């Protein structure tokens, strides 16, 4: 893999992340890390969800776009890798959460066509309650909303590749898309993959652990050992990483189901724990008790 480029941009901190935690400093240094993937593709990483950019003769297309306060940092990163004005022609959202759609308005105001599954539009255009975080998300501005929506899938031919954008329902949310780059053999999984970490399953937005597991199984059937996998959160992954992730989903779901069938409460199952094998998986955004509750809520 070619050398990783780090671009550091300073700007004011505007928003807090999804979990609700806040930075004490009024201003922070915002960093976007740019890593070449395959061919015309780059991985861009700020603080939210992973972003993939296709940069070539047709222009720029990005998948997801992080938190709103990162707009200028991403713009400068795209200028650097493209040698152009850095403005994407297209933005594809994998789902509606703010760490993946936060700069939609920035790009939409500058002419980008935003695309997403229909349920993403419905959620972004209406008031949403995220009870798990005790948070309300107000409707987004018109410039942030998808202008091209689809029910099940859409194909985008761009920069010499075919992007198969497929809706995987009832997994992380009810509006998740996974993007397969056919020519480059790269897949952006959105939040259907938190590498080596327990995932956030937004049950309030139509997510379900059982559907999530079925979706990961289906995605595995569409890729091979050479596929470069971009998770929603975490570093670049392989098919073996995703197989291990599926094993976690299946094993921990069976553990929680067995506990419930034995009459244990969610709190008792959490106190008992899921075992040493999965202990490190709770060191990310979602801790083990939260993951147990998502499984139980799904069952």
What does this structure look like?
By secondary structure, this protein is α/β, with parallel strands linked by helices. It contains 8 helices and 15 strands. An 8-stranded mixed sheet has the order 1-2-3-4-5-6-7-10. It has a 5-stranded mixed sheet with strand order 11-12-13-14-15, with no helix packed on it. The protein has a two-stranded antiparallel sheet with strand order 8-9. Helix 5 (209-220) runs antiparallel to helix 6 and helix 7 (266-272) packs across helix 8 (288-298). The protein is globular, with a radius of gyration of 19 Å. It starts with a strand and ends with a helix. Residues 1-27 have low confidence and may be disordered.
